[in-house]
Design a protein that fits this description.
The structure is a single chain. This protein has one helix spanning about 225-230; strands spanning about 5-10, 15-30, 30-45, 50-55, 60-70, 75-80, 90-100, 105-110, 115-120, 125-130, 135-140, 165-170, 175-180, 190-195, 210-215, 215, 235-240, 270-275. By secondary structure, it is mainly beta. The strands form 3 sheets. It has an 8-stranded antiparallel barrel with strand order 2-3-4-5-6-7-8-9. The chain has a 3-stranded antiparallel beta sheet with strand order 14-13-18, covered by helices on one side. A hairpin with a 4-residue loop joins strand 3 and strand 4 (about 50-55). It is elongated. The two termini are about 30 Å apart.
Length: about 280
């Protein structure tokens, strides 16, 4: 009952990168506060991930200055407030990530001596990229209207260039996600990403070929068919995309940051952002 994930290959590899915006809450001296943390993890090739990012909460905006996360999810990082009344304040966070649910459980300790536990710390908008590893995954995700738990996300990595697996939580059917899709030659690609959309902080980029949406292959699909899958989805949306996935040999050029000019009369199908 619930989600079934089948992974075939050499095993679940470490991420090359992991990024997302985490909503968090905590108690400080008897009062409840909330904020968000933008985290970016990068494989340091030494058995773990380096940590960068920012924190915004009742103390102001802080920058993560150092940190480490192991492949198993054990983590620590230090952020420092750079301006305002609390300029110079440092906070040490320690705890553990659950890679399958995108949750973090842990504690914080400030340089003032105050400390406490995070009462919640989770993300519904996470992007993971993987190095070239022969792994194939099939993910079956149930439709859950209440969506009380974030389903597991697994990668599909067969290309010589990283394949991006981006996920976002679409709570209701009428919520839209802010992605434009074109498919002039039967191969859907991302033509635009709205800065306030669900995938705005993901590693998806305009111009990437879309390999699958919620485990359904996009080969031969029209822009309308690809967009309809997103419109009909409730719960987690998983988009697998990358550069030059429609060709047998990757082209050795730097990825473009915006969509190429339209090469067909097919109209762009655009999914506006929802607020």
């Amino acid at each position: 009952v619930g989600q079934v994930t089948i992974v075939a290959g050499t095993g679940h590899p470490p991420f090359e990168t992991f990024s997302g915006t985490f909503d968090m809450s905590y108690v400080d001296r008897g009062k409840q506060f909330c904020g968000h943390v933008v985290l970016e993890l990068k494989n340091n090739e030494r058995g773990g991930y380096s940590v960068t990012g920012t924190t915004s909460d009742a103390d102001g905006t802080a920058v993560i200055t150092e940190g480490l996360v192991t492949f198993e999810g054990d983590a620590w990082w230090v952020d420092e407030v750079l301006n305002g009344n609390d300029k110079g304040l440092k906070v040490l966070t320690t705890g553990k990530f659950d890679w399958s649910t995108h949750n973090f459980e842990g504690t914080w300790r400030a340089s003032t001596g105050q400390s406490g536990r995070y009462t919640s710390f989770e993300s519904t908008n996470v992007t993971k990229t993987f190095d070239s590893v022969p792994v194939t995954a099939v993910v079956a995700t149930p439709v859950n209207p209440t969506f009380t738990q974030t389903p597991i996300v697994t990668a599909v990595a067969e290309s010589s260039s990283p394949v991006v697996v981006a996920t976002a939580n679409k709570v209701t059917k009428d919520m839209t996600v802010g992605i434009g899709i074109k498919a002039p030659n039967g191969t859907p690609f991302i033509s635009s990403i709205q800065p306030d959309g669900l995938f705005a902080t993901s590693a998806l980029r305009a111009g990437m070929d879309v390999q699958s949406i919620n485990s359904q292959s996009m080969s031969g699909k029209t822009a309308g068919e690809a967009t309809q899958l997103i419109k009909d989805a409730v719960g987690e949306i998983t988009i697998v995309a990358g550069w030059n996935l429609s060709v047998s040999s990757p082209i050795a050029v730097a990825p473009i940051v915006s969509a190429p000019p339209a090469g067909s009369d097919e109209p762009e199908v655009y999914v506006p952002s929802y607020r």
